[in-house]
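Hi L., both proteins are below.
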Amino acid sequence: LNMVSGPAASGDEGPYWSRVKVFFKMVDPRNALLGQSDVDWARQVLSGRAEHPPSVVERAQDIVQCVVHPDTGLPVSPFFLRLSCIVPANMTLDCLMITASTPWQTAGAQALNQCYNAAHYWANRNHTNDEPPVRVAASFTAATASSVWAALRLQRAASAMQGAAAVVLRRSAPFLAVAAADVLNLGIMRSNEWARGIAVKRRDGTEVGRSRRAGAMAVASCVAARVMAAAPVLLSSSFALEAMERAGPFRPGAALASLRVPAALAVLGSAIVCAVPLTFALFRREATVSVSWLEPEFRSLDDGNGLPVSQVWYHKGL
């Protein structure tokens, strides 16, 4: 593992289940409070200046992967925007969304969720291009407006229906609203990546230019991973809540009614811990792409020794 990640590190990501294991470590909330001193220790261990047991080297690699942004080489900050905070943050926000019962509660929960998402996407984006504050504000505004509008419209439509169809639409509304907003939030927040391009590199880490097509692939894969991660989390917890509300002990006024929200939080936490690694691992953080898929200027690259380059690397972001 390169201490600041990079193209060469892509080979270390391994097959799908190896990447799943890495993401399980990255969502561990215990890694949220790791600081600069921990990163400095990890870099010293990985520098190779001294021999260390395999368990120590593995822990150092985990710290770098969990804390350090591959583009900047700096810890992702503030700490609550790291992937390791996604479990407690999304447990709270998702619970607010699935338990909202009035239009104002729905709007407030969706707005809070998109505020956190905008900050999280910004902190974990590809850092090839600077994102001006106006773009961050635009992505937040568009995503919040779309999620609130979608959630309220879907709930209104569900209230006009009856039977199972009404239940399915009402309980699916939080996910559908979040999915629509994620496309706008990430698409606008990271529009410089597909409009101006992102850095692409040879295997040795040498930057060979910027590609708009690689930028579009990076944003599209992040949108896909986010939507796929949200589906099992919001749908399973929302329908589990519906089942609890229909079950005798959890009905309003029943003996276990007060445990309805804690039970929903338990379902949410379990779903997030499982869904995020399984979906995020579908796409490599340090992705490779054939030069034949990129702009014409990349198709005649060589490795510095006159041999043709068939693929390049780029940082996808989260």
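That was the first. Here is the second:
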Amino acid sequence: MMLQSSLSRCFMSTTRSTITKNKSATTTATHRSISSAQLTISSDSPNNNNNIPQNKQDLQFGKVFSSHMLQIPYKGSSGGWQSPEIVPFHDLKISPAASSLHYGLQCFEGMKAYKSVNDSNDIRLFRPQLNMKRLSNSMDRLCMPGSDFDHEELIECIARLVRLDQDWIPTEEGYSLYIRPTVISTHPYLGVAAPDEILLYVITCPVGPYYPSGFAPVRLTADTPYVRAWPGGTGAAKVGGNYAGSMKPQTDASNRGYSQILWLFGEEEEITEVGAMNVFFFLEKEDGLKGRELVTPPLTRGDILPGVTRQSIIDLSKSWGEFDVVERSITLPEVRKAASEGRLIEAFGAGTAAVVTPISHIEHKGSDIEIPATGDLTKRFFSDLMGIQYGRIEGPEGWSVKI
């Protein structure tokens, strides 16, 4: 089923029943692709609704998981993707020699399911086709088999998992069911080689607002000797190793009183990301040019993750037509100069967990860059994106997908 996302079409929500088959994701190899028609639900899969947290205000991210999980093995010796199955949430059993444990052959996605603020029976995903595309690209980057899976078939499997555990989705704007599709190598042998056995599984957990006490700006530091990613590396893929390497510098930054790291690359100090988010700067143009521009680093070097929220902000901005939207290299010296000249209007990070995060401060070479926060544009993106996700406002066709 083809998920349409063209902004040239009228703004509306779409139901999965109106989405046509995604031919672009059709498997061209001889192995079996993922098929939702083969999905089974284990007969010993009770709805453990007694375990649902009663006080949603106490929810902590990633601490409580819903009753079921989806699992789809891939076995090259057995023809490719095996039948999808929804089973009770359980610990995995894999060989201690599995190459995911030794060589980092693991990738994942982050998605959410939302209950409409107008109807708690109306459950939606937000632009899931972009998550499927990124998961496929991450698998391909790790040389995993089956990366050409049918995107719509996996979305349908995930939708059935969410519907089964829909009582776990908290109501009210700001609350949602976090969805974590993950792919690991289960290849049971040592040796640096592409796997021929993998497991795709999906777990979910109820989550609350990223900012439970309000929309809080963050303080960043760019003073770290570490680099998140580089051209030719894995920065454009959502692989676990990218996050593992950030643990020490993030801990160091936290110990010094900073919320996140503003990641830089190269001698010119090109800005790449902020923490685990994409980053945007809203600027008055320089050299006497009139107007404003929203700038975010480009994907062309391959060191920046193509975020779903990032793309949505770009698409919304272009549909408004109120300022220029530019994907280009931006350096920290340029940001400092804009701030000193009063041209830096606001800055924010963007990602699935927080939607947008206002930035108020950047430490650079021992001195501070102060940024007005929280800006009107940051608030507007937050309100509009949340409104689309929860069905409060209509968005571009194909963005809010009813399941």
